[in-house]
Specification:
This protein has about 260 residues and is of the alpha/beta class. The protein contains 9 helices and 12 strands. The chain has a 6-stranded mixed β-sheet with strand order 6-7-8-3-9-10, sandwiched between helices. It has a 4-stranded antiparallel β-sheet with strand order 2-1-4-5, with helices on one face. Strands 11-12 form a two-stranded antiparallel ribbon.
């Protein structure tokens, strides 16, 4: 699917990613976690060619992404960014149909088939009921679901998401994570997402990548990555990790490191 080889990246001379060698499992949900500034979003932008990278560092289905054009990449990878501000007066269905651009010829309009695909994706994400509403009238959770519907409408095999639930309430967080997980299971999609919430990452990811200081500190199933020594070392917090009584996956309880300062 996607792999990185000797991937490094610098911003203004400062090294943000350091010699990353990693591959992502096809058909799985991979959560990328780590402290602020460790390189999570930069890694996502590198593997989607949003940033200018060196040749022979990122490969999609064995092909050097540096040599792939934007339309070719769009047929393989769909991206949902953290901030989804849309300035123009588009309706929800207009935005979802934008996911079909990679499949259209120049100046070609969407066909009935394209519209049918868009409607199907909106039903899957529970957005069909407001398909004709302007996106500026949507709530944060509604807009995020529309952006995921657009990504699904792209019919790419790989979906990248940067903090897909960071500004949402608990209900909408769980709804969107369920939609993402269901798409991976039912459609065989490979999902790679950056998350801050370690408990959400543990519950919905098949595999987790824990980053620290621009590198991969640990990679593996949630139970192998989210343990007390790893979290304490990377985040500098005192965690207690128990087994979720419903799912059997790790669940983190944090203790206040700063109590003696209050």
């Amino acid at each position: 699917m996607i792999r990185a080889e000797n991937l490094s990246f610098k911003y203004n001379g400062g090294e943000v990613l350091k010699n990353i060698n990693i591959s992502f499992k096809p058909g799985a949900v991979t959560g990328i976690i780590g402290p602020n500034g460790c390189g999570k979003t930069t890694l996502l932008k590198n593997i989607s060619k949003q940033l200018s990278i060196s040749e022979k560092t990122v490969f999609v289905e064995g092909v050097d992404i540096k040599k792939m054009g934007s339309l070719e990449i769009a047929k393989k990878i769909a991206l949902v960014n953290q901030n989804n501000y849309i300035a123009f007066e588009f309706t929800a269905i207009d935005v979802v149909l934008m996911g079909r651009f990679a499949h259209l010829k120049r100046f070609q309009r969407e066909s009935r088939e394209d519209v049918a695909i868009a409607y199907e994706c909106m039903r899957k994400t529970n957005t069909f009921e407001f398909k004709d509403k302007l996106v500026r009238e949507l709530s944060g959770g509604e807009l995020q679901r529309v952006m995921i519907a657009r990504a699904l409408c792209q019919k790419a095999d790989i979906i990248l998401l940067d903090e897909p639930v960071s500004q949402l309430d608990i209900h909408h967080q769980m709804e969107i994570m369920h939609i993402i997980k269901e798409a991976s299971i039912n459609e065989g999609l490979s999902v790679i997402m950056v998350l801050h919430d370690l408990n959400l990452a543990a519950q919905y990811s098949d595999e987790i990548i824990l980053m620290k200081n621009g590198g991969v500190f640990k990679k593996g199933p949630p139970a192998e990555v989210i343990n007390k020594p790893n979290i304490e070392h990377v985040y500098s917090v005192r965690p207690e990790i128990i087994k979720n009584p419903v799912t059997g996956r790790p669940f983190i309880i944090y203790y206040d490191n700063f109590s003696n300062q209050i």
